[in-house]
TrEMBL record:
Domain Ketoreductase: 4-186
Keywords noted in UniProt: Oxidoreductase
MF-aspect GO terms: 3-hydroxybutyrate dehydrogenase activity
Protein name: 3-hydroxybutyrate dehydrogenase
């Protein structure tokens, strides 16, 4: 990926940080984005740059603000001359039954998990089309294929992201641009940790037992998908090996979708 510029939204922690690290490890210039304290973010940026000998920039665009998303894309192009790869990863979660789901939480999930994907993609595609090459990688979820109790907003956004992935792929087919989705099952992230802790408190379980029950209900392997595996999938989708793969999704779910 040397010579390529990659934007990864929501990349100051969790899956996004792992994807940014995977691209940096292959020589790409990386633009980070996400939440956190200024010192913590700067330390992560500096560490990534020094470890891999690449240029790493941080942009603090708020994914609920279209004008800031547009500036993320535009400022990257001004600084590095291109946006070659866009990884739409930023996401949030809230769980409640539909009748109890706070409208402001619904709006926040729609804005960050879905609408931000549209705005970032819409801003990046003209730059990719001028070069005749580009990769859009959307981090969806196995919840793009089925439902989940108390997850109405999250499930709705992930279904929609998969649909947007297909439309983007069709509109760019034959242009040198591809758009695909990565759909993980359970990954050990802060979002999942919160769900495990809530289950443990609700059912009177220790964390180990709550973790096992969470996994085995839907992920037959009984193992979390690892950050490194997600990074490898993203690198594959960005590579020439996947040049004729578009509108597709890669599931990494320990058998979840086989149930």
């Amino acid at each position: 990926m040397r010579g390529k510029t990659v934007i990864v939204t929501g990349s100051t922690s969790g899956i996004g940080a792992a994807l940014a690290g995977a691209f940096a490890g292959t020589g790409a210039t990386v633009v980070l984005n996400g939440l956190g304290g200024a010192e913590e973010i700067e330390a992560a940026r500096r560490t990534l740059a020094e470890r891999h000998g690449v240029e790493v920039l941080y942009h603090g665009a708020d994914m609920t603000r279209p004008e800031e998303i547009s500036d993320l894309i535009a400022s990257t192009e001004r600084r590095f001359g291109a946006v070659d790869i866009l990884v739409n990863n930023a996401g949030v979660q809230h769980t409640d039954r539909i009748e109890d789901f706070p409208p402001e939480k619904w709006d926040a999930l729609i804005a960050i998990n879905l609408t931000a994907v549209f705005h970032a993609t819409a801003a990046a595609l003209p730059l990719m089309k001028r070069k005749g090459w580009g990769r859009v990688i959307n981090v969806a979820s196995n919840h793009a294929f089925g439902g989940g109790v108390t997850k109405c907003a999250y499930v709705a956004t992930k279904h929609a992201v998969l649909g947007l992935t297909k439309v983007t792929a069709l509109e760019t087919a034959g242009s040198g641009i591809t758009c695909n989705a990565i759909c993980p099952g359970w990954v050990k992230t802060p979002l999942v940790d919160a769900q495990i802790e809530a289950r443990a408190a609700r059912d009177g379980l220790d964390i180990e037992e709550a973790t096992w029950r969470l996994l085995i209900e839907q992920q037959p392997s009984g193992r979390f998908t690892m950050f490194e595996q997600l990074g490898a999938a993203a690198l594959f989708l960005a590579s020439d090996a996947a040049a004729n793969m578009t509108g597709s999704s890669i599931t990494q779910d320990g058998g979840w979708t086989a149930l």
